[in-house]
Amino acid sequence: MSYAQPKIMYCCEIWGxxxxxxxxxxxxxxxxxxxxxxxxxxPNCVPLALLADTLQIRPADHHWCVRAVNFWCKLWxxxxxxxxxxxxxxxxHDSFQHGIRNFAAGIVDYYNYLHLPVHTPHTAQxxxxxxxxxxxxxxxxxxxxxxxxLEPDPRTCLDRPLLCTYARYFRKPVGNSAPPLYMLPLAPxxxxxxxxxxxxxxxxxxxxxxxxxxxxxxxxRYCSHCGPPSVxxxxxxxxxxxxxxxxxxxxxxxxxxxxxxxxQFVWQPKRFAVARFILDGLAIxxxxxx
Length: 290
Ligand SMILES: [Zn+2]
What we know:
Helix content: 40-55%
Order of helices and strands: HHHHHHHHHHHHHHH
Distance between the termini: 24 Å
Structural class: mainly alpha
Bound molecules: zinc ion
Number of domains: 2
Radius of gyration: 24 Å
Number of strands: 0
Strand content: under 5%
């Protein structure tokens, strides 16, 4: 990524929001997303929002947009007789007076998209200039809203089950400074397995049933050890599966009060013990897990 980053950011101040490059930007973003999924070894069904949050990275398009806005703000901060400021003035007037879909139009479109104030109808005298931090704040709000809008229980949710499972079980709680399980200094194979577990690609019946053709209804993805009505999902593996009772008995402190939810289990301070339990549990329930 450190090699690719400078290339995919090259001159994005200019094309990052320019309407002329909308299609090319979408194609580039799609390619980056595909390569990111290949890099971390997950299928295309894993949402980009989930990957970005797990890896604690900002999607490439956010970088493009913030840098374009930053460039726009710098142009307007220059002296009124500066050549580059005059370029910005011309761009703004062409957009406002002649409806030309240029650089300034892309900036205004983006401010509108983020619900940052833009006078409507525009006036030639009023130029919307919101700093990059305002854009970052709005992007944070949008991300938070995406996760907040998900249903409370992954077992019963009807919409975006992968994202819902991640948000309710594996997303880092606010204020928790513990490293994600996949960042622990473990063998690369173990880190990969833990990462795939957090993004729902672990081979448990809830995952295998999703990949089956035709897909098995979620309520019928039974645990192969416990059978109906136990659905073989992450919560079942950690708290309920009879096949892992000996692992729980060996590490009772992991399940002490107040560990009542998957999130509380995953994000408790005993990081290595949690990772070991998940790895051992997957080895029993999904022997072929990579
Ligand atoms: Zn079971």
